[in-house]
Structures are given as structure tokens and as C-alpha cells.
């Protein structure tokens, strides 16, 4: 029989166990697991790894010399379970948040009332590297700037949810959510059947319907494409997977051409007009005539076609101003300002390094803080105060003083834990959750699941795959 973890998470919330024993939501799963021998479980772990290998489910890790290394995405076979009641709070909170963020983006690229009324400092927007002046005043379909969002959540010491960050540009990982579910159903068919697990497989259909609804041409079958940077991108597997699942062409910049402010795809039967582009390309690479002149990934003239309204881009250009980690601190104020509501989901307390008093407080408490670059991602450039050396802390202080706008600090929160199969035994590891929210003309829809990312190293709070993290299937149980 499989061994249970020897101890609980001493400073946080464990999602399978409480001080009174196994939580109700996990009882059936634990019973199924305890009916298996360590050899059975190890075999299932190998089966999962083989599936990922055969499917080519990989990501790229970049080293200091900028060399990319292809790796199989680590997967833990023990599912993470979230109850329907908890999920309802997540659904309502993220829907509320995205309504406010869409209103903020519409406002900040037009009248900027939130700045004029002093809710958000003007300097915060003007110094944001992802505020794109070139699209100021643009009209986007249905006033929706964020069509797909991956909002990162963590659970605090009492199980309460916090928003860790908003990913509103080109959020990745949804293919892993879908593939994780497929492999779980294969290796645990009986366990899956005895738990009422909500479906995630309809995500491609839901997203495709939103893409079609954005077409500027009123035609029955608009042309939708997925624009990828190409095979060397770290998320290329996901690009191919989603294009295949939605039944849309996967294109690179060289496959598209702009003529008379309209975008066309080159095909063997001639040029076909493109109506909607799901782009997995960062803003600065989209159009060499507007942004980086040396970009060979984008399409010359694309922004002209976009501004004219002849093509829709998903997500909209310029969303980075709303998921800047310094602007993140003001999202609760946005919710109150635009919706006249109290935030359902809390932010993690955030200190602005451009504020002298907050900076001095952080410097005096560096051992309890995590330092983040305001526009960093993937866990790169992050300093965990409780793990850092004296030199690393001093270097962080120098970097902050040289460019305070580029950094924020947050108190280190002990993430919730879930059991993982490590060396044939259940061991507790820290997790976060990235649910995927789709925004269309009919409102915000969350697929009932998400990507649970796991810090596989004992004691680590860094869940990013690029930093040695893995993932789990996420079950929302009825």
C-alpha cells in the first residue's frame, strides 16, 4: 500500500489533508491510489512519460548563453482537486477582474479617465514599456482587448485564493491542461469514472467560436489563422496543437502579406483574405514597419490593416500595460472605479520600488520578500529573499536603485501543497493554478479546470517549467 506523506504543510494549506485527516473531495481518489502497489504507480508514471515523449509534448529552457534545450514537460500523475464551491469563487472573481481590465484597456487607449481622475498615476502608464502609443484610439471589436487570459492564482494559509499575476498578452499552457486530462483518463480510467469531473475538452471549440465572432467581414466562414514565431519558439508545440484542435491554419509571418490594408494568406490556389489572427507573437515583433525594423517574424503593414479594422488580432495589441506587475497593484482600484464593486479575489500585497517609503521597507525586510521585474516572465530575474545569498540581495538592491520602476516586491506567501508521486511515495509539493478565461461578446467563460503548476523541488515555491517545475491534471469536481 502506498505511504501517506509523513507530515503536513506546517505553514500553509494542504489541499488533500487537514489536521482532521483526508478532505472529502479527495477521499475517492485516495482510496483508488491506496489500492495500487508502488510498482503499479511507478508503471503509470512511466506510461505518462512515454505518452508525453511520443506526443512530442515539450518546452524549451534557455540557459545563460541563450541556448535553448528541449525538454519533456514533467507531469505528476496525482490529480489536483478543487471543489465546485471553491471554483465558483474563482469563476466570479476572474470574470469580475477581466471585465475591469478590459474597461481599463479601452479607457487607457482612449480617454484615459482613470488617469485624469487620479486613480492611477500618469507616470506609471507613461513609463510602461508595453504601453503602445501606435494603437491609441483604435477601435477593437466589441471593445474587448483581452480574449484569452491565464490568471495565475495561489492559495494562502487558510485556503483563500489570491491573484498572483495577470497574463493578458499571449498566455501559454492551455495545451498542457488538455493533454494532462487525456493522459489522466488513460492511466486512471476507473478513478476518473468514479469522480464527477468537469470537462475541459471543449476549450478549442469555445475559443474558436470567439475567434469567428471577431471577424470584420460579415461572412459565414471567416478565415482564422494562428500566427507562430516558428519552430524555435519555446511554446511551438502548443501552437501546432491548438491550430490542429481548432482546425485553423498555422502560419508564420512569411506566409502572410498585406495589400491595400488587408491581410492575405499565401496558398497554392492564390491569396486568401485573413479575418482573424490568433497571434502567439509579442507586440514588438508583429510589424517591422511600426516596431522592430529588423523583425523577420512579423508581417509588414499588419498594424495598418489592424488600425483600419480589416483584421482582428487576438489578443489585442498593447495589453502588456495591463499585466505590468506595477500596474497589477492597481487592479482592485480598477474594479472599484469601473464596476463600483469590491474585488472578489484579493491581490498579493505589492510594494512599488519607485515609492521611496515602500522601497525602504522592502530593503529592511529583504529576507521575507520576493523581488520581481515588472515585465519579467517565466520566473527569470526573480529573487527569493529567503533563499538568496547576501551578494544576491545586495545585487538586487543595486538593480532596484538603478531602475526602481522596473521592480516590485511582494511578501513570500507559503503556497498551498498537494501530494505528488516522488520516488514511489506521496510527498507534498507547492502549487499554483492558471485557469484559462475566454472573453467574447457574450461575457467571460472559464473552462472548469486549468494548469496546475508544481514546484517539484522540495521546499521550492517556484513553479515555472523553465525553473524545474512540472504540472498536474486539475479536476473541478461536481
Automatic annotation (TrEMBL):
Signal sequence annotation: none
SUPFAM superfamilies documented for this protein: Glutathione synthetase ATP-binding domain-like
Domain called Circularly permuted ATP-grasp type: residue spans: 79-455
A UniProt-annotated Pfam family: CP_ATPgrasp_2
Spans through the membrane: none
UniProt-recorded name of the protein: Circularly permuted type 2 ATP-grasp protein
Organism (species): Flavobacterium cellulosilyticum
Amino acid at each position: 500500500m502506498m505511504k501517506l506523506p509523513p507530515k503536513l504543510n506546517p505553514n500553509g494549506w494542504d489541499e488533500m489533508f487537514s489536521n482532521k485527516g483526508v478532505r472529502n473531495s479527495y477521499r475517492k481518489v485516495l482510496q483508488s491510489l491506496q489500492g495500487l502497489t508502488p510498482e503499479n504507480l511507478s508503471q503509470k508514471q512511466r506510461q505518462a512519460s512515454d505518452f508525453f515523449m511520443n506526443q512530442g509534448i515539450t518546452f524549451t529552457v534557455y540557459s545563460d548563453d541563450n541556448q535553448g534545450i528541449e525538454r519533456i514537460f514533467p507531469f505528476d500523475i496525482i490529480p489536483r482537486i478543487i471543489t465546485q464551491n471553491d471554483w465558483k469563487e474563482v469563476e466570479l472573481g476572474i470574470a469580475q477582474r477581466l471585465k475591469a481590465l478590459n474597461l481599463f484597456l479601452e479607457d487607457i487607449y482612449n480617454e484615459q479617465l482613470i488617469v485624469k481622475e487620479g486613480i492611477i498615476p500618469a507616470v506609471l502608464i507613461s513609463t510602461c514599456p508595453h504601453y503602445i502609443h501606435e494603437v491609441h484610439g483604435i477601435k477593437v471589436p466589441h471593445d474587448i482587448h483581452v480574449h484569452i487570459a491565464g490568471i495565475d492564482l495561489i492559495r494562502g494559509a487558510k485556503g483563500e485564493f489570491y491573484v498572483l499575476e495577470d497574463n493578458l498578452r499571449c498566455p501559454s499552457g492551455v495545451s498542457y491542461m488538455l493533454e494532462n486530462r487525456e493522459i489522466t483518463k488513460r492511466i486512471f480510467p476507473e478513478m476518473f469514472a468514479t469522480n464527477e469531473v468537469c470537462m475541459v475538452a471543449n476549450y478549442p471549440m469555445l475559443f474558436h467560436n470567439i475567434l469567428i465572432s471577431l471577424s470584420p467581414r460579415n461572412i459565414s466562414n471567416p478565415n482564422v489563422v494562428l500566427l507562430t514565431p516558428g519552430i524555435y519558439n519555446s511554446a511551438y508545440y502548443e501552437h501546432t496543437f491548438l491550430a490542429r484542435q481548432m482546425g485553423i491554419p498555422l502560419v508564420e509571418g512569411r506566409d502572410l502579406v498585406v495589400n491595400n490594408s488587408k491581410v492575405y494568406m499565401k496558398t497554392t490556389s492564390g491569396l486568401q483574405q485573413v479575418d482573424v489572427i490568433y497571434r502567439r507573437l509579442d507586440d514588438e515583433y508583429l510589424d517591422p514597419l511600426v516596431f522592430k525594423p529588423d523583425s523577420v517574424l512579423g508581417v509588414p503593414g499588419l498594424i495598418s490593416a489592424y488600425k483600419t479594422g480589416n483584421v482582428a488580432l487576438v489578443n489585442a495589441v498593447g495589453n502588456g500595460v495591463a499585466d505590468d506587475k506595477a500596474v497589477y497593484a492597481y487592479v482592485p482600484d480598477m474594479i472599484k472605479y469601473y464596476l463600483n464593486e469590491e474585488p472578489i479575489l484579493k491581490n498579493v500585497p505589492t510594494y512599488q520600488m519607485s515609492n521611496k517609503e515602500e522601497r525602504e521597507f522592502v530593503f529592511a525586510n529583504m529576507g521575507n520578500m520576493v523581488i520581481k521585474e515588472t515585465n519579467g516572465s517565466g520566473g527569470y530575474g526573480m529573487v527569493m529573499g529567503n533563499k538568496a545569498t547576501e551578494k544576491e540581495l545586495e545585487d538586487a538592491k543595486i538593480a532596484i536603485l538603478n531602475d526602481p520602476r522596473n521592480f516590485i516586491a511582494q511578501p513570500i506567501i507559503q503556497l498551498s501543497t498537494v501530494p505528488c508521486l516522488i520516488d514511489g511515495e506521496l510527498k507534498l509539493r507547492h502549487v499554483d493554478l492558471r485557469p484559462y478565461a475566454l472573453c467574447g461578446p457574450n461575457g467571460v467563460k472559464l473552462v472548469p479546470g486549468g494548469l496546475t503548476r508544481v514546484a517539484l523541488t522540495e521546499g521550492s515555491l517556484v513553479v515555472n517549467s523553465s525553473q524545474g517545475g512540472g504540472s498536474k491534471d486539475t479536476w473541478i469536481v461536481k
